[in-house]
Specification:
The protein is mainly α. It contains 4 helices and 2 strands, in the order H-H-H-E-E-H. It comes from Piprites chloris (Wing-barred manakin).
């Protein structure tokens, strides 16, 4: 289990919401509804009086944290030697393009692709223009 949380692996620490903010309160509400065994449709419905963008942002960050945790548990089994291609089965190969270092779709080993993907997602989540964190203090 120690290797799962190795900082040199793709696993990243959870993104957190600042206590006292509206998003923190929305996150607590989302967690409570998801953990209570309620109908999923009801659990993801926008609470009355809440901002849809904030609600979506909370779920995007939560989804990233969950995927990150899952990937962290399997990444040691997928090395550049054992997973030389990022694929979705025999018919699909994923190629990386970021218009910075990789200007054209480029075939990469799965671990390298995943590292780039997780870095990119984290950059998006941390971009204040896309996911502002100062949406206001909770009333």
């Amino acid at each position: 289990l120690k290797q799962v949380f190795n900082k040199d692996k793709t696993f990243r620490p959870k993104r957190k919401f600042e206590p006292g903010t509206q998003r923190f309160e929305l996150h607590k509400r989302a967690q409570a509804s998801l953990n209570s065994g309620l109908d999923l449709k009801a659990a993801v419905q926008l609470p009355s009086g809440e901002d849809q963008n904030d609600w979506v942002a909370v779920h995007v960050v939560d989804f990233f944290n969950r995927i990150n945790l899952i990937y962290g548990t399997i990444c040691e089994f997928c090395t550049e030697r054992t997973c030389p291609v990022m694929s979705g089965g025999p018919k699909y190969e994923y190629r990386w393009q970021d218009d910075l270092k990789y200007k054209k779709p480029t075939a990469l080993p799965a671990p390298q692709y995943m590292n780039l993907l997780m870095d990119w997602i984290e950059m998006q989540i941390n971009n204040e223009n896309i996911f502002p964190t100062r949406v206001g203090k909770c009333k």
